[in-house]
Write a structure and sequence with these properties.
Blueprint lengths: L2 H20 L15 H14 L10 E7 L4 H14 L16 E6 L10 H10 L19 H6 L5 H7 L3 E9 L3 H4 L18 H5 L5 H6 L9 E5 L27 H9 L3 E4 L2 H6 L7 E5 L21 H12 L6 E7 L1 H7 L3 H21 L5 E7 L2 E2 L1 E3 L32 E6 L14 H4 L8 E4 L5 E2 L3 E6 L9 E3 L2 H10 L1 H12 L1
Parallel strand pairs: 1-7, 1-8, 2-15, 3-4, 3-7, 4-6, 5-6, 11-12
Antiparallel strand pairs: 2-14, 8-14, 9-13, 10-11
Length: about 525
């Protein structure tokens, strides 16, 4: 086709296109007809709040790391709905305390030797800034499990140890044992996370002079040691010849004959205190106590739902958090605190979503307590999990359906599987709720599914439900919290906390001046 012909054809097509467009609405004629929609207005409000947020670049005087053990995205979502429904409000649009924080990232939780981490190396990542192998704490990724030599030679330094060295106060509160994987990672260096007392150690490790986790807590050599340590695990501190003060007929675990609760009191004298029940806890005046050890159970503390039935009484996680902040905040140099909802994890391991949810709600109360008590201009608060679980939220339940109940559709009829039986909205991929070979899946009623002791059905039968390997959320507020963005490695959390507080920088300056 000659070029003149091509040009003429192009003009014809172009003219036709302009004529067609002329009959269409112009861009300026478009109108956002959904502008009054409540969902639209809610999102617009959220956008304006985000746009108005200033960036806090103050030095963090205080750092609080809050860990919901096993609290992946699905657990947070389910807890959000559960907490709202418990209060009689709309659960789906509910917001947990940490979900109102302005900054967030996703955390990759694998350990140095496993796709799916356990709580020990995941805690080490957050407290030291490095990844390590499963089942060890406070030693690097080249270490071997059960190696006392590596425990001594390959230790890595925790933010808590660094803070204590420069004169800050340090502490931990947990609903697990105070010697468990997450709290233990703030102060201990151990070649096996199960070495909570000397009774759990190998003869070789004992002969080589390695110390157990409980002993490392009481004998922490950095600064003047922890100012606050509260949780369970009393048996790990008491000799096996000593009766437990609460559980009749039971004794401590220690084989070395040492009573570490007395060692704590001897170390700190009149400024120290040890408590093991709610009455003693309530009597502690933070103004008069600088070092508080609280051990409220022989093993883990009660699930929050069961706590009111405890014989000697236990403080809630929020109450322990408040007391810890009151003691730690006396120090003008600031503090570093770990707050762990340890039994969120245990509820899922047991396949009991009710106790997973109620302990997540207890953690929510602790976070609300933190926000009320600290100055967020000078306190960095980070809320995260250490790993996920296999908890899933699935099906097509109608809005407002009980999150722990059987799935009811929008037509108000139960939703059924191919076997013609009802199923729950929450289930686990594996765990104790699995059917044995040859058994049929049991039909479930709403009453059964919402019972506190109900064990969710699972795909794969196992004695204990396992961890999950997907990413989880890091929620942050306070100085330099905006550094949490995108998808990051789990050990990045340490680096933000260290940078925001300048703890490492101040430690280097102190060491340089001492030379």
């Amino acid at each position: 086709m000659p070029s003149s012909t091509k040009l003429a054809a192009g003009l014809v097509v172009g003219t036709a296109a302009l004529a067609l467009l002329a009959g269409q609405p112009r861009a300026e004629d478009a109108r956002l007809v959904q502008g009054d929609d409540p969902y639209f207005k809610q999102a617009q409000g959220q956008l304006q709040r985000i746009l108005a947020q200033p960036r806090n670049t103050n030095q963090a005087k205080n750092v609080i790391l809050v860990v919901g053990d096993g609290m992946g995205f699905s657990t947070v979502t389910a807890a959000r709905i559960f907490e709202g429904q418990q209060r009689g409000v709309d659960g789906e649009s509910n917001i947990l305390a940490w979900e109102a924080f302005p900054h967030m990232a996703a955390s990759k939780t694998y350990s140095s030797d496993a796709q799916i981490t356990d709580s020990a190396p995941s805690a080490v990542a957050m407290t030291t800034g490095v990844k390590t192998i499963n089942d060890v704490m406070g030693i690097n990724h080249t270490s071997k499990l059960d190696s006392c030599d590596d425990q001594k030679a390959k230790a890595v330094t925790t933010l808590w140890e660094m803070a204590d060295t420069i004169g800050m106060s340090t502490g931990l509160v947990t609903t697990a044992t105070a010697t468990h994987a997450t709290p233990g990672a703030t102060y201990s260096h151990i070649a096996n996370r199960d070495w909570e007392s000397d009774a759990g150690m190998t003869p070789e490790a004992l002969a080589a002079g390695c110390a157990d986790i409980a002993r490392q807590l009481v004998e922490m050599r950095y600064g003047d040691g922890l100012e606050v340590a509260m949780g369970g695990g009393r048996a790990n501190f008491l000799p096996n010849t000593v009766d437990d003060p609460e559980d009749e007929g039971k004794k401590g675990k220690r084989k070395d004959g040492r009573d570490l609760t007395k060692a704590w009191l001897e170390r700190y004298g009149n400024s120290g205190a040890y408590v093991w029940n709610k009455e003693q806890f309530d009597q502690i005046d933070p103004a008069n106590v600088d070092h508080l050890l609280g051990l409220f159970e022989m093993s883990h503390m009660e699930y929050d739902y069961d706590r009111p039935k405890d014989k000697a009484g236990e403080p809630s996680l929020a109450e322990m958090t408040a007391k810890a902040i009151d003691i730690l905040s006396k120090n003008p140099e600031g503090f570093v605190l770990l707050v762990e909802g340890g039994r969120v994890d245990h509820g899922s391991h047991a396949g009991n979503a009710f106790r997973t949810m109620t302990d997540a709600v207890a953690l929510n109360e602790a976070v609300k307590t933190i926000v009320r008590k600290v100055n967020l201009d000078e306190t960095l608060v980070v809320v995260t999990g250490d790993h996920s679980h296999t908890l899933t939220i699935a099906g097509y339940a109608k809005r407002g359906n009980p999150i722990l109940g059987i799935s009811i559709g929008v037509d108000d009829e139960p939703l059924l599987g191919l076997d013609g039986k009802r199923y729950t909205t929450i289930s686990f991929a594996n765990g104790p709720g699995g059917q044995k070979a040859g058994q049929e899946r049991r039909d479930i009623t709403m009453e059964e599914a919402t019972d506190p002791d109900f064990i969710q059905q699972t795909l794969i039968p196992m004695q204990s439900e396992t961890h999950g390997g997907e990413d989880l959320g890091i929620y942050a507020i306070g100085p330099w919290s905006h550094l949490f963005q995108g998808t990051v490695e789990e050990n990045f959390t340490f680096h933000v906390m260290n940078f925001a507080s300048k703890i490492g920088e101040r430690l280097s300056q102190k060491q340089a001046s001492a030379q």
